[in-house]
From TrEMBL:
Superkingdom field: Eukaryota
A Pfam family the protein falls into: Abhydrolase_1
AB hydrolase-1 domain boundaries: 92-342
Organism: Artemisia annua
UniProt key word Hydrolase: yes
Keywords from the named record: Hydrolase
Record protein name field: Alpha/beta-Hydrolases superfamily protein
SUPFAM superfamilies assigned to the protein according to its UniProt record, in alphabetical order: alpha/beta-Hydrolases (SSF53474)
InterPro entries: AB_hydrolase_1 (IPR000073), AB_hydrolase_fold (IPR029058)
GO molecular function: hydrolase activity
Length: 361
């Protein structure tokens, strides 16, 4: 869900709840002439404008078919139990990758729709959701919860479970997981869609030199003293989770009790606190701007323009990379577009996959 920006390292401010109409937003896609992803190009930005219409006339919203059944399974990865969901038995494969603190349930509004014409998988990264949460202190001196670990997990999942090439559809830190996986093994990923990818603003290299020792000291305080567990206890409550979600969702009517439960419950499982503290203290590893030049497959960057954690003004720079075919702005949408505005995101996913489904890796 959220990235490790400043809002996840301090108690977030609760945005006032918006009083929205009961009308359903639909999208009008204003597309420029498509330019092949791997050619030299100027920075092209697509805007997705919204209008308010009666629910009966909405065409962008594609309801899930009653025939689509979403299965929940487990996969043994290096001795660990990994939970995943899947649906659909025809078409290109897609793997949906969640963000920090979330899990495969965060794609519940996408899986049934996409599965009508695709094989769709959604995975709980190790340490999150209902996957195993090994204690990082018992796994040696090297960090375990890293993008290299999750990238390896994603590639192995495609080899062992999907048994095919796949599109990676990623939100927040899941975007770095997808990029890392694609760089590690370019033969697996057919394309990556990045939804509000984490900018990693707390990465150590993005801090002034004089502030780095202070950051390290604060991380040691969280990781090695009771302060960290106390901090986690203040975050892992229904009220705190709801407040965080209301901050990152621009349309707060989408912050339902179902959504709060889907984030909170696995976060209360044994080991979740250790994973949480380990990752918020992880300020090394790759940055998106380091991985994007190495990616060999097409990339589509999508950004909710009301994201309070990952400002779109900074995200637009990713549209300049040669591997990025388009930058799509979603007006009035926050940090988790796939859940807040699935009626906008699902058609973009389908269109992206259709353009590159026959591409040879």
């Amino acid at each position: 869900m959220a990235s490790t920006s400043s809002s996840t390292l301090g108690l977030p401010k609760l945005h006032s709840l918006n009083k929205l109409t009961n009308k359903i937003p639909c999208s009008t896609f204003l597309r420029k002439k498509h330019v092949p992803w791997n050619t030299s190009k100027p920075n092209r930005i697509i805007s997705v404008s919204c209008c308010l219409v009666d629910g009966s006339s909405v065409e962008a919203v594609k309801p899930a078919s009653d025939k689509v059944k979403v299965e929940t399974c487990t996969w043994n990865w290096k001795g660990y139990s990994i939970r995943y969901q899947y649906a659909g038995d025809t078409g290109p494969a897609m793997v949906l990758v969640h963000g920090f603190g979330a899990n495969s349930d965060h794609w519940r509004k996408n899986i049934p729709v996409l599965a009508e014409s695709h094989r769709v998988y959604s995975i709980d990264l190790i340490g999150y959701g209902y996957s195993d949460k090994p204690n990082p202190r018992e796994l040696g001196d090297s960090p375990f919860y890293t993008f290299e670990t999750w990238g390896s997990q994603l590639n192995d999942f495609c080899k062992d479970v999907v048994k095919d090439e796949a599109f990676f559809i990623c939100n927040s830190i899941g975007g770095l997981v997808g990029l890392q996986a694609a760089v590690t093994d370019p033969t697996i990923c057919k394309g990556i869609m990045l939804l509000n990818i984490s900018l990693r603003m707390l990465h150590i290299t993005k801090q002034p030199w004089f502030g780095r020792p202070l950051i390290r000291s604060f991380q040691n305080l969280l990781r090695n003293t009771p302060v960290g567990k106390f901090f986690f206890q203040t975050v892992a409550t229904r009220e705190s989770v709801r407040n965080i979600l209301c901050q990152c969702y621009h349309d707060t009517t989408q912050v339902t009790e179902e959504l709060v439960d889907s984030i909170l419950r696995p976060g209360l499982e044994p080991g979740a606190a250790d994973v949480f503290l380990e990752f918020i203290c992880y300020s090394d590893g790759p940055l998106p701007e380091e991985l994007l030049p190495q990616v060999k497959c097409p990339v589509l960057v999508v950004w909710g323009d009301k994201d309070p954690w990952e400002p779109i003004e900074l995200g637009r720079a990713y549209g300049n990379f040669d591997s990025v075919e388009d930058f799509v702005a979603l007006p009035g949408v926050g940090h988790c577009p796939q859940d807040e505005a699935p009626h906008l995101v699902n058609p973009l996913i389908e269109s992206f996959a259709a353009r590159h489904a026959t591409m040879k890796i």
